[in-house]
Amino acid sequence: MIDLDGKRALVTGGARGIGAAIAVALAESGADVAFTYQHSTEKAEVVAKSIGEKGRRAIAIQADSANPEAIERSVAQAASALGGLDILVNSAAIGLSGMIVDINVDDYQALMDINVRGPVLFAKAVIPHLSDGGRIISIGSGLAERVPFAGVTAYAMSKSALLSFTRGLSRELGPNGITVNLVQPGSVDTDANPVDGPAADFQRSLSSLGRFGKPHEVASAVVYLASPAASLITGAILTVDGGAIA
Fold first, then answer.
1. What residue ranges do the domains of the chain occupy?
2. Residues 27, 21: Cα–Cα separation, whole Å
3. pTM exceeding 0.85
4. Which of 237, 243, 139 minimizes the C-alpha distance to 192?
5. Which residues are catalytic?
6. pLDDT (tens digit per residue) in 211-236
């Protein structure tokens, strides 16, 4: 079992889906966990309770990942409550479907604010708290590298930005012993993309394993990258998609 005892993590978008699974998995490995959420108050309470039941501290912070001031506040609150930060997981994101010719400009801007600017600003705020051995891990998407159907261009573009962000930031922070990596899930069974959804059969057909992933399978990859076992891995992309982009 990976040992993160004494580590302090901040997970953005940690009340639902993959983010919630990551927050709980980090706690299972011994980390104290702060996590942000925007609207899912009841789900945030469930995640916080689950973390507490594992004997770890849980800090639930309501924050809009599209708001720069809220990002700075949430990082300061997490660092103060936990006595510092060692791990940042950028998980907060929104989806946007539709053809580019039909896209609403406000919706597009919200997508970019949360999916691209959010991770950058969270990292900017967290970096001063990190020391040698610190970790920044972002959650991308296999659509960043392969777009096998129409209607997700803007979303895929927002996730592809994390490729360059990860690689570039790894160069900036490497001299400080801080690693920066990206986990790219494929189709994962969440409220936003359920295993019995209208496009589920098509998504399964893209996977070598022929199935959806589970949130805990993505979380396991994040826990590994957050651990000392991954100390030489930085600027890397770990794709967890059952072979969909193989």
1. 8-240
2. 10
3. yes
4. 139
5. 155
6. 999 999 999 999 999 999 999 999 99
